[in-house]
User: Fold this.
Amino acid sequence: MSGASGEIINSAAPAHGRSEASAKPPQRWQPIGPVERRVLGVLVEKAKTTPDVYPLSLNAITTGANQKSNRDPIMQLEPEDVEAALERLRTLGAVGLVEGYGRVPKYRHYLYEWLGVDKVEAAVMAELLLRGPQTEGQLRAHTCRMEPIPDLPTLRQILASLKSKGLVVSLTPEGRGHVVAHALYLPEEMARLQTQYQRAAQTIWSESSEPSLPASEPAQRSILPASCPVPEAQPALNSFSSSSSQTVSLQAQLADLRQELAQLRQQMELLAQKSQQHEEVLEWLRKELGV
Assistant:
């Protein structure tokens, strides 16, 4: 079939007939492995941040999957790993092979159709696929590099829509430090993730059970497993059980330092992203010019 730009699209997706919808569950997506999640996230990210070089070649996808910024965990995949993941995603209807962009075959995603999401929801899902579980504040800050989200209430509406589609789950109770994750994890991965957060929650609440604070002001803190990164741009540092004014002052100073660190980290990530984009454009030009 021919695309709008004249390219020939060779894909296992999204050609599934809608007439089969009544005989199958309404969702087209299913859980996928970590390499497939990374590859799919990269395709969505690059389509939004570097549209001039999209669709992507195998080498470009591999570079994007292995980049150090905006990724958690950091991976070191070989082109063969990425190619195998792309073939599995094509079989599922999430990715298509595009011909007509030169000598090198290129790939594009079908996330909108596969998940049934709009462009902002796709950006949120891509960030969760690329970075894993995040607090609402982290997720909004990260997603804004692809699609603007003006405030947390807007993000919460987006998350509510994704939850209604079964695409996002809460790992901690709603409120300050609320952590969410995508639902594309394999069953054993999701079970392990939920257990980690439940244990972390139990540990924190057991340590903070001293009756130091009034009942109307329960101690709160962001709940993250030990393997997760330090929370970024947290709104405040929550005190566990100290009435000492000196301790409160130190905590306030520490909160300010964390805020400054989060801002610096965000700036560094943006610079790294721009540098990566320039490198990809140069690599594409070299290949096109045969240099």
The chain has nine helices and seven strands. The first helix runs from residue 34 to 49. The two ends are 32 Å apart (CA to CA).
